[in-house]
Amino acid sequence: MRARPLTFLLLVAVASGQPAKRDYAGEPRGDFESRRRETLELAVAPNRRGLDAQLARLALGRGPLDQAALQRSLDKIRRRDDTADFDAVLLLRLLGQGGPLLTAELQREIRTVLIGFKYWVDEPGRDLLSMWSENHQIGYHTAEYLAGQFFPDELFPNHHRSGRQHRDAARERIQRWIGIKARVGFSEWDSNSYYPVTMSALLALAELADEPEIARRAAMLLDVMFFDMAVDSFRGTYGTSHGRTYTGTLVAGGRGEGTGSLQYLAWGLGAPGAGDAAVSLAAGTRYRVARTVALIAQHLPDELVNRERQSVLVEQAAELGLRFEDPDHFWLLNEGGKFRTVEHIAASYRVTDRWNETLHRYGVVIKPYGDAVLGTYQELARRGEPVPDLDRTSLQRVDKVTYRTPDYQLSTAQDYRKGAPGYQQHIWQATVGPDTPVFTFNPGPTSKYWQGRFPRNGQFKNVLVAFYDIPAEQPPGPKTIVPADAGGNASPSPSPNEDTLVPRTQAVFRRSLFDEVRQVNGWTLARTGQAYLALWSQQPVTWSAKEVLGGEGLVAEGRRNIWICQLGRTAVDGTFAAWAQRIAGARVTVTANGSAVTYAAPGVGDVSFGWEGPLRIAGRVEPLADYLRFDNPYCRAPYGSGRYEIKHAGRRLVIDFNTAEHSDTP
């Protein structure tokens, strides 16, 4: 049966009086060429005004370009507003795409703006550009490299260097950045908000770099990222733990997250759309997602277990051939715990203090928080108390597991920084459809820093246990001193002393989106289609209509709580009624002090876990750490090796950053 077009689905929704839902493909749809055309057509819809729409117009040869949209981006770069690097990369894609729609006058204006831009932290300029996070690093390096390539003989007045000099400097940074990510993965691991941004930059290099080595290595890393997405997604929904995400994107599920349109274009699962990365992929001609990866994304075995390790610790510098206090290496390591210890803070300042004038945003946003954390550590040490990890912004090394069936997916960051404060990290998620993400969290101090204290999580296949232990008292120490020019997005994080320490946990659980929901014996049990979900809370729960990230969910009062999640499906577990009865009748035993639990999980056996100690399944210890970079039926790649051999359906994809081999063959 031919899929209905998006317009038809929207008209049906409006006529029925129901809220219109974005089209979604839960089964593979079309071929790449048809989806590429669909993506470009969606991008040039009348309501589309961004640079991605202009790139699509150039690719389709369909004018006119939106001059107001182009001027907004040019002005943004002139003002050096935050995220100007995103616009610079897309403007360079426009120049690379070319065509009669791009007038000589417009090309001259783009050239003038780009040669006057600031491309790295060591260049002059007192501004509020954010340059240090992972996605910004490759964004600025890509923009500098391509601008230098396009205008090699121009003098770039901001730093009095030629375009050729900028290209050469950026080449070295790109090679170093790709080399590290190839070995250890990403600090913003599996980010449904920032993978598309990072991939847009890599796609620009793969499409436009004149030097084959740069284009090839960018394409190789893109294949690794798409593979990562393929083994951590459920029918096009990136329902896994994320290093960074935003609540609106998170609760929107598969129809609203940033990777949905990429997945739909790459392999026909997900939400058709026209985000920057999807349009960048659709408009290009050099890079295509490896066929082996696309087939893996479409593969739905009865069971899939993927274990993986990503990101770094500052302490790994030597083994990676880096030095934390080397200005050229610092940014590749800083998210691995730059404020995790007194020593790390001191080392960070020794590097960043040299750029006080040129890295103004760091002094406005990051350093005031670092000062507050340092003061807290010093006060704890003075009192003779333990000094825990209080670096809210740390995106250090993580061990993840994802368990997927044709009807559901469960994924978590295993035992990740238990009890530490968070900000945009997402620790675990159950996914039974594009509209029904379920997960628990402790509320954070602001909407930007939405994560409070982290749980201790342990997952085995379809069962997960999450322990929360929220401190009752704020740590001693100073408050964050907010600089006079801070404001909006350029504001520092609250200090540990200002941590809200909300004495409750919550579960995102949009009850109206399930076919059935019932509660018995502390369990909330739900069904959608043939997928079943059960969530147990040690503390009593109440339903809240709007309190849980702006919508419906469960609220459990208390600083200490244990949540248990188990998933099931008709093909394995029989009817929902019978499964729910088994779950509700299963033994759950919590120790007297509340520090450990044993759950007799139907179909699994005794699951024993606590705030301390191992995860035991029927008496056997289940490892929570020291995973490979990838460990799944398609690929076993050691962490740190930089070589990936991926096999499926009689095909073999080799991505070897050591030898530069990149082959996808039967």
Please give a structural write-up:
- This protein is an alpha+beta fold and 666 residues long.
- It folds into 3 domains: 26-299; 314-383; 398-470 and 503-622.
- It is 35% helix and 20% strand.
- The chain contains 19 helices and 26 strands.
- The strands form 5 sheets. Strands 14-15-10-7-6-5-4-3-22-23 form a 10-stranded antiparallel β-sheet.
- α9 packs parallel to α13.
- The two termini are 30 Å apart.
- Residues 1-19 have low confidence and may be disordered.
Rg (C-alpha, Å): 25 Å
Low-confidence stretches are 1-19
By DSSP, the count of extended strands is 26
Estimate what percentage of residues fall within beta strands. Answer: 15-25%
Strand order of the largest sheet: 14-15-10-7-6-5-4-3-22-23
Distance between the termini: 30 Å
Give the helix tally.
19
Largest sheet: 10 strands, antiparallel
How many structural domains in the coordinates?
Answer: 3
Judged by helices, strands and strand pairing, the structural class is: alpha+beta
The averaged pLDDT comes out at: 95
Helix content: 25-40%
The global form is: globular
